[in-house]
Amino acid sequence: MIADFESLEIYPMTHEIDALIEDLVIANKILYNEGVVDGFGHISVRHPSLENRFFIAKSMAPGLVTAQDILECDFDGVVHDPQNRKSYVERFIHSEIFRARPDVNSIVHSHSASVIPFGVTSQRLRPICHMSGFLGSQTPIYEIRHTAGETSDLLINSQKLGKSLANILGSATVALMRGHGSVAVGTSIKQVVYRAIYTEVNAKLQLESMKIGTVDFLTDAEALATSAMADVHLDRPWALWKEKALSSHG
Amino acid sequence: MIADFESLEIYPMTHEIDALIEDLVIANKILYNEGVVDGFGHISVRHPSLENRFFIAKSMAPGLVTAQDILECDFDGVVHDPQNRKSYVERFIHSEIFRARPDVNSIVHSHSASVIPFGVTSQRLRPICHMSGFLGSQTPIYEIRHTAGETSDLLINSQKLGKSLANILGSATVALMRGHGSVAVGTSIKQVVYRAIYTEVNAKLQLESMKIGTVDFLTDAEALATSAMADVHLDRPWALWKEKALSSHG
Amino acid sequence: MIADFESLEIYPMTHEIDALIEDLVIANKILYNEGVVDGFGHISVRHPSLENRFFIAKSMAPGLVTAQDILECDFDGVVHDPQNRKSYVERFIHSEIFRARPDVNSIVHSHSASVIPFGVTSQRLRPICHMSGFLGSQTPIYEIRHTAGETSDLLINSQKLGKSLANILGSATVALMRGHGSVAVGTSIKQVVYRAIYTEVNAKLQLESMKIGTVDFLTDAEALATSAMADVHLDRPWALWKEKALSSHG
Amino acid sequence: MIADFESLEIYPMTHEIDALIEDLVIANKILYNEGVVDGFGHISVRHPSLENRFFIAKSMAPGLVTAQDILECDFDGVVHDPQNRKSYVERFIHSEIFRARPDVNSIVHSHSASVIPFGVTSQRLRPICHMSGFLGSQTPIYEIRHTAGETSDLLINSQKLGKSLANILGSATVALMRGHGSVAVGTSIKQVVYRAIYTEVNAKLQLESMKIGTVDFLTDAEALATSAMADVHLDRPWALWKEKALSSHG
């Protein structure tokens, strides 16, 4: 294991990895600063060259993560760290989605507040505006009771649970988890950060709109078109979020 | 084109333009700091002397805009910039409203949160207090499907769409855009910033009020009188917003 | 008039007045920092020795007020200022309440957000917890249409309107103003700041509670007892609010 | 009394006590910074060696508390302080719960906003997500009228009232107080701070969820399992809250 890990040091693409880890650290701070995560929640990024590996922080609050806290984890959920530090109990959310979805390179798991109501009621989260077309025509809900029964602690703390979550996610961009939170996936850190933030925004807008009337959601075609449009504008909010997060965190 | 642009450098009213651009930059920061825009949204101001021209930032988050980022655009949506930088895809919101409304000198487009519900439900945004009389007796709603069909990305990215939006706006001060946001217009930067901020405030107040009962809105005459009253008090909040925005942005 | 004003300079109680004005300035900043006022709203304090006089800022945003901005105004709404600066158009709120209520020494007028819904619907603002017993068994609502008709700009910009507002306030501590805001009165700056802040808090709590069920409000006797109790604890939140406001405003 | 108090100075476990008081000070700041307390509310911790004693701040806003402000109080509500400073009128909340619950080592009393609606309506606060399983299957509500009648000031200002509150709390982790606030208990400062914060979070999530549909709460077994799970993760949010609170308070 140590040999595998040290390969990171001598790997010719060290600069690329350093840049990726720097973005992962910034993403951790952005997600805290924009209110998507609090003391809990996590973001990962697929290793750019080693198969079945991804980067994720050790078990700690995202808002405090630095580059020294990033660990390498494999798709069986085994952490490869010379210091034997531990990552999150729920790293199986990441490992199994990376395994099931080759198109996904970055994953956010959060408990953001406005999304929770759509996991515990019969109301479905749907795209209400052009910023959140990535939600598509339906957002699947993961009910852990179907796999773990009615006495679990709701955590995705095993490969089995991770696989069942990945199965519910299917080809979607976001899945809600009943009584827990949500997971968002993307092809890049910037895209998944955008999606995690605007999933929360959409949920907040939808909550308010539903209270005053029947909502005219995006058509499926509008969702598709706006999602594609958003992808070419990812740098714009990232630049803002990054500056704000870094200036807030010293 | 370059010749046209350089006329800006030698124009005798350089000082006036510099002051206008400074206010435009401050307005960008205010709109971010007061929560009207996030990473997206934009504000423009009509050129004080050149016909069919206006100033607007290059394509970037409003909260990060500096004087060096302001571009000159014409009413066909063509940007005149020696560095060939690009402005927003939706600059046609501005160009076509400036063309249709000679009384308008400044325009804000935003996705401010409390306004969205009034664009996607059958509830109409109406003036609920003396700060927002400018909303008048009705706030028109722009449905892009009437012009672009049901598969668009909802952006006002052409002259045709800009014209249709300007047509719906008519002589109003604010128009909502279904599933997208809103546009506010004014005779000056200070007025339109005031209107953009209090459109959001009014929407928030109206959402809360509607949840507990039937709302007693301003009469049309009260809306008219309070709108005129607000116009003589624009400097007061501007001074506050400016100080707060500048101290927040370093 | 100038003679009267200059008496302030030579008055033996200069130190008391300086301290009072310092507290008035701090109160302005607190009300902004705690979200009770934005660019608009005002607070006044009765002159400690000159009859029919009170202190209030010149026409400006409360959050920016300094000791140099405090003016002296009489009960006819005439400002006595050697520099001929102007105070708020609505200074008659203060002058007429001070005239009608000898027990009142400080007054806040604001547009705080959660209070507005209770002025434009049939729901009455009532004390929901022990912090806001001062609201008593009923909070009167001022309908300016009864005095100014249906075409006014809603401002209390004359003695006549000020008197009609003072009449509706009667012996209460807070009166709501339809489509406008509220006014709170107290025997001291600390008390009225407390009341203005907890009027907003109570309104917010009541809005949320009403959405999920029938509310069990304080009994009249509980309102009375908690109001007396709160009066002996005014220094505690004031110390906090002061430190926060001063550290926010540099 | 003074002799008892001075024993604190010569006690061999001085370092342990210093560390406990330091955590108590940090907890005060965290509770303010995370919005659980405002100018009012308090947190206590049981004395690690002296029976029938606990530490709590003198009567002041939690956000301003320093180590010098911590007093020692006994289970009869008597403060043992050489400077004869006073603690909170409601210290009986703490003294009587410590007396009745040997398993409890730290207590928070607050008026956090989202919890209030569940004390004044017929809706019960229940665990809606895995972060708040400690709420268990029911959250008891204390109605002070049953003990103090309908004319009280709602404060727990006597041993009698403290005992009646402790009685209603029973073996629960959180009790609501009608028209007042709530009390949370824990085996440690970190646990009770976590519980106070996530009681507010749960209340906010439940308010929003109830507005859009029928809520699928945690099963009792899920509540139990998630509560145990949360207890092994207390350091993670504490590290974040501590850094944020200390950097906010200078």
What's this model, at a glance?
The structure is a homotetramer of 250-residue chains. With 250 residues, the first copy, chain A, is α+β, with helices and mostly antiparallel strands.
Task: Output the keywords.
homotetramer, alpha+beta, 8 strands, globular
What does this structure look like?
Four copies of one chain form a homotetramer. The first copy, chain A, has nine helices and eight strands. With 250 residues, chain A is an alpha+beta fold. Chain A has one domain (2-248): 3-Layer(aba) Sandwich (L-fuculose-1-phosphate Aldolase). An eight-stranded mixed β-sheet of chain A has the order 4-3-2-1-5-8-7-6, with helices on both faces. The longest helix of chain A has 24 residues, at 189-212. Chain A is globular. The N and C termini of chain A lie far apart (35 Å).
Describe the SSE topology.
4 copies of one chain form a homotetramer.
Chain A: H1 2-10, H2 14-33, E1 42-46, E2 53-57, E3 70-74, E4 79-80, H3 91-100, E5 106-110, H4 117-120, E6 141-142, H5 145-148, H6 159-169, E7 174-177, E8 181-186, H7 189-212, H8 220-231, H9 235-248
Parallel strand pairs in A: 6-7
Antiparallel strand pairs in A: 1-2, 1-5, 2-3, 3-4, 5-8, 7-8
Helix pairs in contact in A: 2-7, 2-9, 3-6
